[in-house]
Amino acid sequence: MHPIEVLERYWNHTSFRPLQEDIITSVLENEDTFALLPTGGGKSVCFQIPALIKDGICIVVSPLIALMKDQVNTLKQKGIKAIALTSGLSYKDLDTQLDNCIYGNYKFLYLSPERLLQPLVRERILQMKVNLIAIDEAHCISQWGNDFRPAYKNISALRQMHPHVNCIALTATAKHTVVEDIITNLDFINPKIYKASFARPNIAYSVLHTDDKLFQLEHILNRHKGSSIIYVRNRRATTNIHSYLESKGFSTTFYHGGITNKEKQERLQQWSNNQKEIMIATTAFGMGIDKANVKTVIHFNLPESLESYYQEAGRAGRNGEPAFAIILKQHIDEDHLRSQFLSTLPSIDFLKLVYNKLCNYFQVSYGEGQDTTHQLDFKSFCSRYKLSASMAYNALILLDRNAIITLTQHFNFRTKIQFIISNAALFQYLETHLNLNLLVKVLLRTYGGIFEYETKVNLSLVIEKSNLSEKQVINQLQLLEKEGIISLEMANTDSEITFLKPREDAITINPIAKIVEQQHQLKHNQIEAVLSYTQNNKICRSRQLLNYFGEKTKLKCGICSVCQNEKKRNATTLDASISTKIVSALQNENLSSRQLIKTIICSEEQLLQSLSELMETKQIKITQANTYKLL
């Protein structure tokens, strides 16, 4: 089957975006391929189409669980068999999923780089008929890349397992040094390299200095009507700005990591279908979102890096229509940015302390703990050990990124249930409590031994199967407990921790010390690059971004805030020059506007504007003959 036929069949498109077809052809010719396509460039199609054409299964390595799930769901909706090995899978489920990849005609296996450390995963991958290895977010393999993850080094083992299979690396943001590092680390042989320009000529980049961000926000949204995203720093800001804009008559919704999956889907759907015009979100929102008609992307706070800013701003104007990417900046924002991202970088000693306390918190013995998963109440953890929440959070992120633990952030209930009355008594009870019938039947059919012993219950699964809301399920469980039908243990948690290595305290942390220090330096460089970008009001903003990513150009975009200000300054200078020329021309004789425009090089609009200003300042007057005369 030809690539264009696959595109038409599964994606309903009749043409490729720039470079897509060249990249697909390279992959089909079994070449190692590097694709640098800016956000919105359609990276996933570049490996999905060749994998569908080739016989066998494509292994996709990605660090982003949410994006993996999103891509797998999208493929399934197209009738394509795909699996993602996400966190929380039991050994039995993992075993079944891997068997499906070998015997079930699956076309895609998505997994994190950490999964490649598991012996079972390696053993089964050896048995698979792999047709392509795709490395998404490939910049993570480079120590100089944004969001470096040492676990990406495990990909070399994947290549050794299937040495004859070619590989495609994809990323949206990578400087020249990072590209070279990726190619070296993936052991590419004569790679075909495809780089799309980072230029987005339809996006007007702006930095607005203001002491009243809410007023500016309202002004921008009124001026640029259409679908918008407003990025904010924290969850509280999403709700506060949502309430403020709703009170001003705007159609808004909000999105952050603390809302339920059902709420996320509903709000994304409302925004995607234009039922809600404005999405107010933390940076948890946007990955994998491809809404074409976003008119404006506004950063209410300074971004933490130009890499993330470019990706987030690039969600505007994907339909090619004029769009706007605006940063709102107060004089105190620079200090806030440094304080949030630099002063809270954990030292190696603090990292060791947090790891030690984490092991103690879950009573992990020395030499033990590998592959065990625990529910974490982060607030309680920080309170018990008197830890700074921001420092402790950053320490957990570093431990996750460096493959010491896996941190999954989500609000959930850790639930254990046992029915403590007989089967007969339960059904007698349900005869007078018909509203509880559905929930009880779902529990009985899902968990076989729930009468015999205390059973761990996946509340999300129960909610999905019963089609009840989370609130309804919790209220009904609490009623069953109150009336002596079940024993119920329910604890709120906001995170899940999986230990990837056995506890060895300092010995566990020492090997990553140099990498952590290097990541700290990278973060310093990124913050300074953001500040430089927002402070530089002399060089075209689009040009600044292109230069940052190694795309040297002297061309100006003509539409950013810097270029627009330059045009205004030039217009003011031009107006003064026209006025001088008018006064000079009228020294000897009175002239009409038609006569003046023949001697002065300017547009009619500029001439009339200058004549009007000269009359207002009483330097000239108009005569009865409709000519202009000096006073």
Please give a structural write-up:
Helices cover 46% and strands 17% of the residues. With 631 residues, the protein is of the alpha/beta class. The strands form 4 sheets. It has a 7-stranded parallel beta sheet with strand order 3-4-2-5-6-1-7, with helices on both faces. A 6-stranded parallel beta sheet has the order 8-13-12-9-11-10, with helices on both faces. The chain starts with a helix and ends with a strand. The protein folds into 4 domains: 3-195, Rossmann fold; 203-331, P-loop containing nucleotide triphosphate hydrolases (Rossmann fold, 3-Layer(aba) Sandwich), CATH 3.40.50; 421-484, no CATH class; 561-630, Winged helix-like DNA-binding domain superfamily/Winged helix DNA-binding domain (Arc Repressor Mutant, subunit A), CATH 1.10.10.
